[in-house]
Amino acid sequence: MMKNLIHLAFYDASYLDIIRFTTDLPSSKFSSSTLLTLNIKAYNFNDCLCILDGRFNNLQSLVIDLMVISHLFEQVDNQRNIPNLKYFNLSCFSKTWEYKSLVVPLIRRMSNLEKLGLYITASCVGFIDGNSLKEDILHHLTKVKYFDFDIYSLIFIKNNQMNFSSKEDVQQTFTDFSCEKVISCLDYFPHKRKIIQCHVYSYPFQMKSYENITNHFPGGYYRYVRIVSLHDDERPFEHEFFRQISLAFPLMTRLTVINYRAQNSKQSIDMNENFEIIQYYHLIELDIRECHDDYTEQFLNTKTYLHNMISIIIDTHSLARITQNFTRDETRINCGKVNEIFFYGETSNYSIQSLRNYFPFADID
Question: What single-letter DSSP state applies at residue 198?
């Protein structure tokens, strides 16, 4: 029991020390009749249900970040009304198959909800668009005045089926939404991943991460975003695309790039071409281990400005090719800014001393 507690934040930056209510904190040991606001990072959806099982019967605001949303063996009530909750913010680290069966029924129980935040990635049979959000959630919550969301819906392509809604169709479903602006993105990946990705979000964007950006990125200004990932199986990322990313996410600290498509504009062929230098003033972590050589070149040559003391994860063989076995002067400047490097692939074929000389501020064993 926690007497006189009103506000509680239980939120680790990582997922290493997260709460398991079903096993660690039964209601007899962890409850409060005075708690009004709870901000917490927990493991699974059952933990969220436990928080709302009546142990905090006067809770008005819950912000919860989950590792997974999935069915588990423990049975926790997902039927009882939750009349006191006014603000609910749910985000999840990983993809879920249980949006309709778990998330939607929970939110519908919050009959007096006034503010809702929903940030998830769901595998489903149809896009989560404006129509589905209204039908599944908003029509059941008549008191909601503010709805902020960042939702990815993934549909697997079967038998080369391509009869799906267009981006314009998806955008049209949000015409009467109360949000200031809604942005829709639609990407088809028929070859490698065999999925269709629909991404819809309210704008201005409130989240700290923006994942799986493709060449269909709509642009904008995202001042809260610190973590960005770029992933496109179908089309290459060109120099202009990276310039757009640097401008859209000016405070980005972590960037991951996944793309094995060769660039059409090879800026290294003729350095006299009029390519604008792209500047990443706040970037301190760069992951380019799953990339074509062109992207190793993109980030290490003199047309990209990197922050001092940057950490890089990089494919060893791609690095060796682009730096001409750690002798090329043009890539030495940015490599000299690296203070931590993680090699993806064997390094035994390369001289440790050559690596140390090329990355003078990185600890290389």
Answer: E
Contacts (Cβ under 8 Å, ≥6 apart) of 341: 311, 312, 313, 314, 359, 362, 364
Q: What is the pTM of this model?
A: 0.89
Q: What does the alpha-carbon distance between residue 229 and residue 258 come to, in Å, rounded to a whole number?
A: 8
Coil, helix or strand at residue 110: coil
Q: Can you list the positions of beta strands (E) in the chain?
A: 7-10, 37-42, 61-66, 87-92, 115-123, 146-156, 181-189, 195-203, 209-213, 227-231, 254-259, 278-279, 285-291, 304-305, 310-315, 338-344
CB-CB contact of 151 with 170 (8 Å): no
Mean pLDDT, consecutive 10-residue stretches, the chain (365 aa), reads: 68 58 60 90 89 91 94 71 96 93 95 97 92 96 95 86 82 88 92 88 94 95 97 94 97 97 72 77 97 96 92 96 95 96 91 93 88
Question: Residue 126's pLDDT is what?
Answer: 87
Cα 334 from Cα 313, distance rounded (Å) = 14
Query: For tokens 């695309």, what's the residue?
Result: 241
Identity of the residue numbered 161: Q
CA-to-CA distance for 289 and 308, rounded, in angstroms?
Answer: 20
Asked if residues 312 and 288 have their Cβ atoms less than 8 Å apart, the reply is yes
Decide if 50 contacts 78 (C-beta within 8 A): no
H/E element holding 172?
A: helix 167-172
CA distance 99 to 14: 24
Contacts of 167 (CB under 8 A, 6+ apart): 184, 185, 186, 216
Q: Residue 59 is which amino acid?
A: L
Alpha-carbon span 186 to 121, nearest angstrom:
14
Structure-block tokens of residue 333? 């400047």
- Cβ atoms < 10 Å from Cβ of 329: 9
- Is the Cβ–Cβ distance between 322 and 358 less than 8 Å? no
